[in-house]
Amino acid sequence: MSRSRGRPPSQRQLRVGEEIRHALSEVLGEASLRDPDLAGAAITVTEVRLSPDLKNATAFVMPLGGADLEVKVAALRRAAPFLRGELARRLKLRFTPRLGFEPDLSFDNAGRIDALLRGERLRRDPERPDRDSEGAEAGEADHGS
Question: pTM for the whole thing?
Fold first, then answer.
């Protein structure tokens, strides 16, 4: 297992992960879940990552609007055995991977990065060209000595 750390996912991992993501989205879109925390919930499966041996899958999910994220993820974790059985019926895989669910925080991270890029601190830097010229002049003075 330590040999695969740092390596990008294989084409097979990506392909199977995408198949699982589509099938899981279909299952979650149907009204077959009995858990009251999942009843009527619109949940987006943004990504499915598989282990190199394809035995474990981690699905990154986000409820519509991000409401009750932890409650929905906990409910999906409880429903994982049922969802695994549904995937086994829909997919033609030798082994259906064990499912894990994690909240997808990439939208939050993207929002933070966007706020930083649009922030006041970055806007000030281009407005100070004299700083660059002073730094260049000071650097030239040091080289001339």
Answer: 0.70
